[in-house]
Amino acid sequence: MNIPNILTLFRLFLIPVFILVFFSSVKNNFIYAVSIFLLAGATDVLDGYIARKYNLVTKWGMVIDPLADKLMLLTVLICLAIKGYIPLIVVILIAVKDSLMIISGVFLYKKNTVIPANIFGKASTLLFYLSIFMLPINKYIGNIVLKIAVISAFVALINYSIIYFKNRKLESNPSQ
Fold this sequence. Notes:
This protein is an all-alpha fold. It has helices at about 5-20, 30-55, 60-80, 90-110, 120-135, 140-170. It has one domain (about 5-170): CDP-alcohol phosphotransferase transmembrane (TM) domain (Four Helix Bundle (Hemerythrin (Met), subunit A), Up-down Bundle).
């Protein structure tokens, strides 16, 4: 087990911590919960940086890292929807998109194929973090950024789909 994978496991550990803090009756619980979410984001950036810089990328890490990201984001979105900070449709859209990504990721994993993150995926992740950070400060602006993040997430999904289907076409017709 290397350091990037330990950081990813730590991020998974932060999911129930986020839930407990978010729904606690502690004063400023929302701020603390958002801080936990931002800490999770920092570990995501750090584990990716360390894995690439020190050549510690593992097949297990390539699977568990995006899964941890998706689980954390979905958890946060579900909690925000339960408390009425964001509309439930956002959770549904992202859950559908992430389910498609996970299913296709498992399929690609079995074929030893990896589609690297694209700019739209990275932008949507950054926008989700920014929107969740903004919600306690300004709910209106936070929700606008959230809508842009959802759109960006679906643009990323379309982009990944195009790459996926191009790869399938090349596999089935290698002469092209």
